[in-house]
Specification:
Elements lengths: L4 H18 L12 H20 L2 H18 L8 H27 L10 H5 L3 H10 L4 H12 L4 H8 L3 H20 L1
Length: 189
């Protein structure tokens, strides 16, 4: 797998696609209309997205709770209820970035701590290959991990990733390419 760039991309797509299916996520699901519907339909998916970005379930739950709080505060300002999903996704990505920045600052004063905080259930559902991919994702720089997670777990287009991360479409594309190359090196060792 180490010398095959397409193989790495297939592994990432397969792993994050498997997680997406386990979550019951679908791009064709009907869009919710009320804040309560959005909460019921999107909460767990947003938590899993945050877990893939911050690698800590309790922190991920906090990030998502803050995103929903922000959505509630800005509900009347949304152009329509369908924009809420994009708002939440962007809020989760930005909240995850803030958590990682705070973590980096805290670690400057404390010894680094590598915590594998994934739930036992989620790890049990993954094959050894899938676990290797998820572990390798955790070694990528933040931006590369975000782009791959949003692409393969979030099943988003380059334009949607660009909107959620504040990057240009070209940067999203080049970042994904560099991330897949980095994963190839990590998994080839």
């Amino acid at each position: 797998m180490g010398d095959d760039p397409e193989g790495i991309e297939r592994s990432v797509e397969k792993t994050l696609g498997t997680l997406r299916k386990l979550d019951g996520a679908s791009r064709t699901a009907p869009q919710p209309l009320t804040l309560e519907d959005i909460y019921k339909q999107q909460r767990m998916r947003m938590i899993r997205l945050a877990i893939l970005l911050v690698d800590e379930p309790t922190t991920a739950e906090d990030v998502v709770q803050e995103a929903f709080t922000g959505l509630y505060r800005n509900w009347s300002g949304l152009r329509d209820a369908n924009a809420a999903i994009g708002y939440l996704r962007t809020a989760v990505v930005n909240g995850s970035r803030s958590v990682l920045r705070r973590r980096k600052t805290a670690r400057a004063y404390e010894p680094p701590h590598q915590a594998n905080a994934r739930s036992a259930e989620s790890l049990a559902m993954l094959t050894a290959e899938h676990q290797a991919v998820v572990d390798a994702l955790g070694q990528l720089p933040r931006r590369q991990r975000e782009v791959l997670v949003l692409r393969y777990y979030g099943n988003l287009s380059e334009a949607e990733i660009a909107e959620a991360t504040g990057l240009s479409k070209g940067t999203v594309k080049s970042t994904a390419s560099r991330a897949l190359s980095a994963l190839q090196k990590i998994m080839g060792n």
